[in-house]
Amino acid sequence: MSHNTYYDKHALARAKDLLADMTLSEKLGQLNQFSGEDGHISDHLRANIQSGNVSSVINEVDASVVNELQRIAVEESRLGIPLLIGRDVIHGFTTVFPIPLGQAATWCEQTIEQGARIAACEAASQGVNWTFAPMIDITRDPRWGRIAESLGEDPFLCARLGRAMVTGFQGTDLQDATSIAACAKHFAGYGYSESGRDYHFANISENELRNTVFPPFKMAADAGVATFMTSFSDLNGVPASGNKWLMDDVLRKEWGFKGFIVSDWASIEDLSVHGLTENNAQSAQLAANAGVDMEMVSRCYAQNIPALLEAGTVRHSDIDAMVTRILYLKFALGLFENPYTDSSKFPERANLEHLEAAKQAAIKSCVLLKNDAHVLPINTRLTNHIAVIGPLADDKYEQLGTWIFDGDERYSITCAEAMRAKVGNNGHIHYAKGLDTSRTFSNEGFQEAIEAAQQSEVVIMVLGEESILSGEAHCRSNIDLPGAQSDLLDEIVALGKPVVLVVMAGRPLTIGAETDKVDAVLYAWHPGTMGGSAIADLLCGDAMPSGKLPVTFPRAVGQIPLYYSQKMSGRPVTQESFVHQNDIPIRAAQTSLGMASNHLDVHFSPLYPFGFGLSYANLQYSEVMLSSQQMSAHEPLNVSVDISNESDFDTDEIVQLYIRDLVASTTRPIKELKGFRRVHVKAKSKVNVSFEITEDLLGFYGQHNTRITEAGKFYVWIATDSASGEYKEFSLVK
Ligand code: GLC
Questions:
Q1: How far does the centroid of ligand 1 lie from the alpha carbon of residue 261, in Å?
Q2: Probe ligand 1: pick from 137, 183, 472, max atoms within 8 Å of CB?
Q3: CA-CA distance, 144 to 156, in Å (whole number)?
Q4: Ligand 1, atom nearest to 232 Cα
Q5: 367-371 and 520-523 strand pairing
Q6: Could you tell me the pLDDT band of residue 7, with boundaries at 50, 70 and 90?
Q7: For residues 459 and 513, is the Cβ–Cβ distance under 8 A?
Q8: Ligand 1: distance of its center to the CA of 295 in Å?
Q9: If you average pLDDT over every residue of the chain, what do you get?
């Protein structure tokens, strides 16, 4: 579906008509986003709105203040142009859903669309009409704090989940009072920022950009996302906010994107800090000529474009195009007819329906990583004394995660609370924090935790990262459990009771040492408002774990970047060739160590692979069945498996389709996700799941950076994760 499908030609005509009436000063005013003032309206802001210098305000969410801002714009400026009210509504508004990385673990477009729809409704009730989401940066670096906001490492999965967010935020009609404009960010390459540090240099070939980084953005553009945001990062020496190839050649000319582009926060001003320009005037010129329409908060445009127009280094025609794109969205949103919000006409924020949706999303986002001896699910009728221990076990705020400006922790249900409700009067929850925070090194709380465990039949440890340890600019060089959490776990494990580890974090953590010691592991990410309730339902069998990892878990931080769709290399490592450092004989000969692509001190496999996630059911996959040994553009291939559930548990399973292109004009990944489907498999039953492989699905960008398909041999898997299953071979014939 192309962007034109969404394009409102009437709104465009109205924008052009209005443009014709505007003075230059009023046109330039439409390029400026001002920061809100925490429920106030200074004389400075009021005067700028009255003189038409303000196009958008970011970070004002008090409905009465927003309505007053709109009233000033509509009634006290010459042309009465309403404002875009922007906010980072990233994974919920008052009702907080799991962080996007957790939502990605649902592999469920419907769940993600519903969460965005609810977030849009709650935000719109306060006057927000533009969100800076979805964040669809591909990243393979869990050191980077913003992996928490991402939809994971894979372009196929990220593209479809990002599209679901766009559709959820924007609804089916942008003029609907509950619809808010979405923003695909951060274009482009931010997730490859060197060494997982934020705001940094990203060295990415065009081939990698086109095959991996661009697809989610292209799908968002095709889905009609209203706006794009430039990335802070320096892409191959040209920071995105001044990168004409990205914004104009690719986004506008090649993809036909008709919406508008907003800079990131002061990212135009940053261009001189990067060293791409000498000063704000040059930055304004570069960004305007690159096609960045609106400047977020900094004043390079306002202070320099008049002179640049005089000098002829910025063209009036470009300014007219920028202003038209911004006015178009305001007309398309219906703001000229309905600039004000009436909160009373919206459902109550954090109402029971919204909270239940957040709970269901959290249930689907948790990933069961281990369940030895079927410790889970806990039968609370038989197990009456349960310990719940850890700094994140009863913290209403920390479970919300990063980017929750408008979350309200009063609605949070923690793990401890939910477990108390679960066992009711016929059981007892023995709670201890053990550590004051996830970063505490003192062991003064250990004894209380040990005593709680000693009184219990099973122990639930809730460990991980506080929310501040992930998100923007919160990058870690070491992604172990912080503080003395691992020591606390050791003390509890030493008691010999069954231990269930629940992890709340904004990223994959290198927790191999810990997961080896416990009986079960449930990865909850930062699960949002209803996280505790979701976790308790999963641990006690009132809900079935179905989540699958959207990102690879490395064994050691030194393996990063580690991801399933890596290239083969000329010397791939095998189980046979791998020799661990501890097993190398003294004076071993130089060439005695397998001579392959691996580290000496860690096994080459991930701790947990992309797509991995256990269930309580015992699912068996048949071999892959093919409709033929070969396919062509006119004869797609049908592939299928039977999945049998031998257990007594009904369960959902996310079935994954992978392919490998064995020989091509550029080296191809050893595996690529090309389909996924959530299926329900009843106890003691079998289902057949099939996928169609079309020639287009096998396409890629080759040496000349054009999208091609090539005849030849392929492998195909249909499996429960990226490391399982046996492939079958087929050929594409031209
Ligand atoms: C931040 C982030 C961006 C966000 C914007 C507005 O610095 O990079 O994702 O939308 O500024 O808060």
A1: 14
A2: 472
A3: 21
A4: 8
A5: antiparallel
A6: confident
A7: no
A8: 12
A9: 97
- Alpha-carbon span 154 to 216, nearest angstrom: 9
pLDDT tens-digit map of 422-473 = 998 888 999 999 999 999 999 999 999 999 999 999 999 999 999 999 999 9
Q: In this structure, what token pair is assigned to residue 225? A: 């996302």
Does 150 have pLDDT greater than 50? yes
Confidence check: pLDDT of 4 > 80: no
- Catalytic residue numbers read 264
Which residue has its alpha carbon closest to ligand 1 atom 11? Answer: 265
- Helices assigned H by DSSP within 300-445: 300-311, 316-332, 352-365, 415-423
- Residue 211 CA to residue 32 CA, distance in Å, equals 34
For the segment 513-539, the average pLDDT, to the nearest whole number, is 98
Nearest CA to ligand 1 atom 7: 265
State the Cα–Cα distance between residues 566 and 551, nearest whole angstrom: 13
C-alpha pair distances (Å), 451 with each of 446, 484, 485, 501:
9, 18, 17, 18
Q: Ligand 1 pocket by C-beta < 6 Å: which residues?
A: 88, 132, 185, 264-265, 472
Query: Which amino acid is it at 326?
Result: I
Which residue has the CA at smallest separation from atom 10 of ligand 1?
Answer: 132
Residue among 91, 264, 298 whose CB has most ligand 1 atoms within 8 A, to mutate: 264
Give the Å distance between the CA of 265 and the centre of ligand 1: 6
CB burial of 43-82 (b: ≥16 within 10 Å; e: otherwise) equals: eebeebbeebbbbbbbbbbebebbbbbbebbbeebeeebb
Closest among 504, 522, 472 to 232, alpha carbons compared: 472
Q: Whole-angstrom Cα distance, residue 415 to residue 693?
A: 43
Q: How confident is the model at residue 6 (pLDDT cuts 50, 70, 90)?
A: low
Residue 1 has pLDDT above 50, yes or no: no
The residue assigned the tokens 């997730």 is 191
CA of 505 to the centre of ligand 1 (A): 21
Angle 229-234-236 (CA atoms, 0-180°, nearest 5)? Answer: 120
The Å distance, Cα 622 to ligand 1 centre, comes to: 46
Do the Cβ atoms of 653 and 643 come closer than 8 Å?
Answer: yes
Q: Is 527 exposed, middle or buried (0-12, 13-18, 19+ CB in 10 A)?
A: buried
Whether the full predicted model's pTM is greater than 0.90, yes or no, is yes
Could you tell me the pLDDT band of residue 3, with boundaries at 50, 70 and 90?
A: very low
Within 8 A by CB and 6+ apart from 306, the residues are: 24, 28
- How far apart are the two ends of the chain, measured CA to CA in Å? 27
* Residue 601, pLDDT above cutoff 90: yes
The residue nearest atom 8 of ligand 1, judged by CA position, is 264
Nearest CA to ligand 1 atom 3: 264
Q: What is the pLDDT of residue 594?
A: 80
What domains sit in the chain, N to C, each tagged with a CATH number?
3-345 (3.20.20.300), 366-539 (3.40.50.1700), 619-732 (2.60.40.10)
- Give, as one character, the DSSP assignment of residue 730: E
Ligand 1 centre and the CA of 466: distance in Å? 20
- Angstrom CA distances, 129 to 82, 503, 526, stand at 11, 35, 26
Burial label, 197 (beta-carbon count in 10 A; 0-12, 13-18, 19+): middle
What backbone phi and psi angles, to 5 degrees, belong to 546?
-140, -5
Q: How far is CA 16 from CA 13, 32, 73, 319, in A?
A: 5, 19, 19, 13
- Count Cα neighbours of 412 within 13 Å in the Cβ-side half-sphere: 25
Closest ligand 1 atom to Cα of 86:
6
Ligand 1 pocket check: which of 190, 262, 265 to mutate, most ligand atoms within 8 Å of Cβ?
Answer: 265
Nearest to 672 by CA among 565, 569, 550, 551: 565
